[in-house]
Amino acid sequence: MKLIISSVSGEPIYEQIKTQIRTAVLDGDLKAGEALPSLRKLAKELRISVLTVTRAYNELADEGVVQNIQGKGTFVMDKGNELMKQQLEAQVRTNLAEASRAAKAADMPLERLGEMLVEEYRAN
């Protein structure tokens, strides 16, 4: 797993870590049960504080994306768990809201937007 951290983005480093790990999990790049790098290893690779990585991992665990197992490490949770389902649904709702705004801006009828959604759903 390759994380890219920007010190000039304005977004806190722990948020950048969370976003990239969450995206990798939701996209399937990180599979259920897969171990994340240890806190110290990732902190050393990124040249940041262990506390920053700890905060990112703990917040991801609170969201149900990963699970911290004492003495073993941090592991990706199954997409089937309830918290992960809620995360995915929130992502879908955000994307649908954006698509709805774009459709309205293009003066597209609701029926056409529905047809496009069905087409995309079946294509993937």
UniProtKB/TrEMBL annotation:
Residues 11-79 form the HTH gntR-type domain. Transmembrane segments: none annotated. PROSITE patterns: HTH_GNTR (PS50949). The keyword 4Fe-4S does not apply. Keywords: DNA-binding, Transcription, Transcription regulation. SUPFAM superfamilies: Winged helix' DNA-binding domain. It comes from the Bacteria. The keyword DNA-binding applies. CDD domains: WHTH_GntR (cd07377). GO terms for molecular function: DNA binding; DNA-binding transcription factor activity. Pfam families: GntR. This is Transcriptional regulator. It comes from Bifidobacterium reuteri DSM 23975.
